[in-house]
Design goal:
Layout lengths: L39 H6 L10 E2 L2 H14 L13 H11 L4 E2 H12 L14 E3 L3 E4 L2 E5 L5 E7 L2 E2 H11 L5 H11 L3 H7 L11 E6 L4 E6 L1 E3 L2 H5 L10 E6 L2 E6 L6 H15 L4 E5 L9 H9 L8 E5 L2 H9 L4 H5 L6 H7 L1 E4 L13 E6 L6 H11 L3 E5 L8 E3 L3 E4 L6 E4 L2 E4 L14 E2 L5 H14 L1
Parallel strand pairs: 12-13, 13-16, 16-17, 17-22
Antiparallel strand pairs: 1-2, 3-10, 4-5, 5-6, 6-7, 6-8, 8-9, 11-12, 14-15, 14-21, 18-21, 19-20
Helix pairs in contact: 3-4, 5-7, 9-10
Length: 474
């Protein structure tokens, strides 16, 4: 069993949650600090300010169970330099607000606000079930509605509420690992009806009630009505991230081996791709394109298998991993044991279980490319998680280049969603990160996978083919 088991990035949900700012303070894009200038108790009490006719319940035991599970399983509690100094105050404020009977929705939002302290882009709690049926994009502080013919108009107000108020409320609850993630998430969450109400918009609960938005077309203000929809906002908004009718497909284009990988998931097609890559290597192919546009991640060991077929050993991600009983049970579900993970590490299994954590240092020394393969990795803003990790392996290992757009999660990231807790009263099932991954090149950008050739993602494949053709002719 190879060391890459230690970077098994099992992303069981594709969406980051929370952020770390309030309406009067600067938004934190990369999560290095959490602004606590607002009184913390008041900060949490403002979460429960939206009047509702929903029944109230006692969620106090759920809150305690959640805190205990997160503190037992999340690696940030082993990393004092990452844990906010005011974490204890924030935890206490969260628990205090749940001592009163509150609605389910209030509890959800309180949970989200608590989780921002973890600065973990992989943890997800909820998405509303009602959202505006409109397509718009948040770009550099502005929200733009996209028309059927591709024309854009700037959104100024939503149900009379300035867009900036909505943007600030999204940032109050959601965490962004970088600015690409900020733009991606704000484009989606600004449509969530529950979030809009919390920002101050007056929106009815009935499906027949349309919502008025104010637009500016460059010359005039325009009012339009948009409808609401029921459904899971994330599933609909992220439909492009789901696999089509394949996990991986591949073809040889002249002497370039093209791999279109839709998701990092094992099945027989990955083994077939591995065999085809090995055959291509034997026949002299040395130029590869790995297309990770719209790839939302999954199990990073898939990427390791494909690189291995090329003869490549990637550089080693560092990791800090919590080894809890829940973690060991989750490993068993994937047919992996702790002994598998520790093979060749020199660690004693009983010692690691007693200590409760496992640490590996990041290293570039493991990188090896004996076949002198060159890989162009194609990325866009939807490239995420294990897909980003694959790009980092190629970039830090100096195996090729990245072509396209900056991906939306940080190279050094929390993940390995092997922890979980089910809260009995609310019935929330919350996945918990159990590992912190550290980019192999500690001197490189820890918050962004920056392409070597920055182009519109639609042009990335043509750019890669042209680049490799020029490389071949040199």
């Amino acid at each position: 069993m190879r060391f890459k088991l230690s970077v098994l990035l099992l992303i069981l949900s594709l969406l980051p949650l929370v952020v770390s700012c309030n309406n009067s303070n600067e938004v934190d894009i990369i999560g290095e600090t959490i602004d606590s200038s607002q009184d913390i108790v008041q900060d949490f009490s403002e979460v429960a300010t939206v009047s509702s006719q929903d029944p109230v319940q006692d969620f106090s035991e759920d809150a305690i169970l959640l805190v205990d599970a997160i503190e037992d399983q999340h690696p940030i509690f082993l990393m004092e330099d990452l844990l906010p100094e005011d974490y204890d105050e924030r935890r206490q404020a969260f628990l205090q607000q749940t001592t009163e009977r509150i609605t389910y929705q209030e509890f959800e939002f309180l949970v989200q606000r608590y989780i921002i302290t973890l600065k973990d882009g992989h943890m997800m709690i909820r998405f509303g079930n009602q959202f505006l049926n409109v397509d718009w994009q948040y770009i550099d502080g502005h929200l733009f509605k996209v028309g059927e013919n591709g024309e854009t108009k700037e959104v100024i107000e939503i149900s009379g509420l300035p867009v900036q108020d909505v943007v600030e409320k999204v940032a109050f609850y959601y965490y962004f690992e970088n600015d690409v993630e900020r733009q991606f998430l704000t484009s989606i969450i600004s449509r969530d009806v529950d979030l809009l109400r919390r920002a101050g918009a007056t929106i009815g609960v009935g499906m027949g009630d349309e919502v008025e938005i104010t637009l500016h077309d460059g010359s005039n203000m325009i009012q339009e009505n948009v409808s609401k929809r029921w459904g899971n906002l994330w599933n609909i908004a992220s439909a492009r991230l789901t696999p089509h009718n394949f996990i991986v497909r591949y073809e040889l284009m002249d002497d370039i081996f093209y791999i279109d990988l839709r998701t990092f998931e094992f099945d027989s097609s990955i083994d077939e791709a591995e065999a085809a890559i090995e055959e291509a290597i034997e026949n002299g192919t040395r130029h590869f394109i790995v297309d990770l546009r719209d790839n939302g991640g999954g199990n990073s060991a898939v990427g390791d298998q494909l690189l291995s077929a090329m003869g490549i050993s990637p550089p080693a991600y560092g990791s800090v991993r919590r080894i809890s009983q829940q973690y060991l049970e989750s490993l068993e579900q994937f047919g992996i044991t702790l002994a598998d993970m520790l093979e060749g590490s020199g660690y004693d299994e009983a010692y690691i279980i007693e200590r409760g954590y496992l640490v590996h240092e990041p290293s570039l020394e493991m990188a090896n490319n004996p076949n002198d393969v060159f890989i162009s990795v194609l990325t866009n803003i939807y490239t995420y998680s294990s897909a980003t990790m694959f790009g980092i392996w190629v970039q830090d290992g100096n195996f090729g280049n990245i072509i396209g757009e900056t991906s939306r999660n940080a190279p050094s990231v929390f993940g390995d969603m092997m922890g979980a807790v089910t809260l009995p009263e609310s019935q929330m099932n919350i996945r918990i990160s159990t590992s912190k991954f550290i980019r192999p090149d500690t001197e490189a950008d820890q918050n962004m996978l920056v392409p070597d050739i920055l182009v519109d993602s639609e042009d990335a494949l043509d750019t890669a083919i042209e680049f490799l053709d020029n490389l071949r002719s040199e």
